[in-house]
Amino acid sequence: MPDSANLQPNDLRAFWMPFTSNRQFKANPRMLVSAKDMHYTTADGRQILDGTAGLWCVNAGHGRPRIVKAIQDQVAQLDYAPAFQMGHPKAFELANRLVDLTPAGMNHCFYTNSGSESVETALKIALAYQRARGEGGRIRLIGRERGYHGVNFGGISVGGIVANRKMFGTLLSGVDHMPHTHDPARNAFTRGEPEHGAELADELERITTLHDASTIAAVIVEPVAGSTGVLIPPKGYLKRLREICDKHGILLIFDEVITGFGRLGTPFAADYFDVTPDIITTAKGLTSGVIPMGAVFVCDEIHDTFMNGPEELIEFFHGYTYSGNPMAAAAALGTLDTYQEERLLTRASDLAPYWEERLHSLVDHPYVIDIRNVGLIGAIELKPIDGAPTRRAFSAFLKAFEMGYMIRTTGDIIALSPPLIITKDQIDELIDAIGKVLHSL
Ligand SMILES: Cc1ncc(COP(=O)(O)O)c(C=O)c1O
Predict the structure, then answer these.
(1) 258 Cβ closer than 6 Å to some ligand 1 atom
(2) Residue 297 and residue 287: Cα distance in Å, rounded?
(3) CA-to-CA separations, 10 to 1, 120, 191, in angstroms, rounded
(4) Could you tell me the sign of the dihedral formed by the alpha carbons of 127, 250, 274, 198, in that order?
(5) E strands along 211-276, which residues?
(6) Alpha helices for 28-105 (secondary structure H)
(7) 119 lines ligand 1 (CB under 6 A)
(8) Can you tell me the distance from the alpha carbon of 168 to that of 153, in angstroms, rounded to the nearest whole number?
């Protein structure tokens, strides 16, 4: 008899939870048992308004019929097809529909299963592309302080979150980082893109001088950094990065794992900021979080450079058992149908002014030292408790959950990113609740 047969169904010991204070959670678990539209239901039957689209992913809302049906039909028809040297129609149909949504010229899609894998894939494409075009000396990758690019070794190497890096050895060599753009002294309480900081892009110029541009393959940034606390790019900053990359033959990668699929009111942040990168990484909203799937989009020039050798040879030695998995492809098609029918990829731009107004109404609440927003993203930064950073915001998270609201905190920042189906009444409810939470701290 396996050990598990002797355990209570809710014995919590075996599951080592990710990015979680395991002992604290298991002493007082927060269990979700079902979800529909904007709400979760807890094990004790309470409704929780989802202020974070799960983990920035459930863009279409929960339990959406088209997505559910697409998966149910798919599992009955074709559960799995090998991803290498074989295909199935939905993976191709999906790729075509996706590249119709991406910025002009980004006509090719490589499937992964998560944001972290999309990042690894993008970094490998960048290095291999430089080599394939005869620039094999370009071996360096440039990231940014406070960047989050998932948790695999490439991603944490170019990433800039200290806690995610410091335990894991020397990481990738040949990586450098630009400074982050967060500047509360000059930009606190900015609505939308901050005025100050475009000149920080010139740090890339400095880095190219230091290492010599001919050694640099790619620069990766989140157009809006999410996990590190919603850092919105200063006006003109991304355009300047693009110019410097162009000048030096460096690829620009936008990590759009959270900004992709309508978060800013446009399909991609590249559209919102009117800056087209060479590679875009996505995941999360691609399937509205329902089935793990990611996709990396590349421009023709990159793709076509790989398509040059003998036709019978594999062009790119990379891929996953579940790349383009039938269930994931079906979920993504159901998600795109939902986005299209309900015009969700542009809905955030309709809601953004209301969202901004309501969010900034918290300005005079206790401990608030900054509020920032773009699209349907918001952040409320709290004054840390002396000697106990993160504790104040985490208390806010616990209190909000107790009151029936899911918010997310990182450091002492409350980050909000509700499903794109949220109504104005629900925005009111969420912001009013956060106001009460702040007063209760
Ligand atoms: C910008 C960015 N890149 C990569 C990732 C990693 O995605 P995943 O957790 O699906 O591996 C995330 C996750 O939050 C992210 O925000």
Answers:
(1) yes
(2) 16
(3) 18, 35, 45
(4) positive
(5) 216-221, 251-255
(6) 53-56, 65-77, 89-101
(7) yes
(8) 9
3-state helix, strand, coil in the chain (%, to 5): 40, 15, 40
Map tokens 């979680």 to a residue. 20
Rounded to whole angstroms, the Cα distance separating 194 from 185 reads: 11
Give the sign of the dihedral formed by CA 307, CA 312, CA 317, CA 319: positive
297 contacts 264 by C-beta, under 8 angstroms: no
Residue-by-residue DSSP string for 106-158? --EEEEESSHHHHHHHHHHHHHHHHHHTT-TT--EEEEETT----SSHHHHHH
pTM, full prediction: 0.97
Mean of the per-residue pLDDT values of the chain: 96
pLDDT at 1: 43
Which residue, by CA, sits nearest to atom 8 of ligand 1? 115
Cα 433 from Cα 404, distance rounded (Å): 9
Work out the average pLDDT over 261-285. Answer: 98
Largest CA distance in the chain: 67
For residues 325 and 330, what is the distance between their CA atoms, to the nearest angstrom?
A: 9
Q: For residue 8, what pLDDT is reported?
A: 57
From the CA of 116, how far away is ligand 1's center (Å)?
6
- State pLDDT tens for residues 393-441: 999 999 999 999 999 999 999 999 999 999 999 999 999 999 999 999 9
Nearest atom of ligand 1 to the alpha carbon of 56: 14
Q: Is 26 exposed, middle or buried (0-12, 13-18, 19+ CB in 10 A)?
A: middle
Candidates 48, 54, 36; CA nearest to 398 is 48
- Report the alpha-carbon distance of residue 334 to residue 302 in Å, rounded: 29
Residue 409: strand, helix, or coil: strand
Q: Tokens standing for 312?
A: 């019978």
Sheet holding 294-298, edge to edge: 108-112, 294-298, 279-282, 251-255, 216-221, 140-144, 175-178
How far is residue 330's CA from residue 336's CA, in Å, rounded to a whole number?
Answer: 10
Atom of ligand 1 nearest to the CA of 155: 4
Ligand 1 lined by 150 (C-beta under 6 Å):
yes
Tell whether ligand 1 has an atom less than 6 A from the beta carbon of residue 148.
yes
User: Alpha helices, DSSP H only, in 274-343?
Assistant: 300-306, 326-341
Q: How far is the centre of ligand 1, averaged over its atoms, from the C-alpha of 310 (Å)?
A: 35
Q: What are phi and psi of 122, to 5 degrees?
A: -65, -40
Cα distances (Å, whole numbers) of residue 431 to 70, 360, 365, 434: 34, 10, 12, 5
Q: Which amino acid is at 109?
A: C
Q: How far apart are the first and last CA of the chain?
A: 48
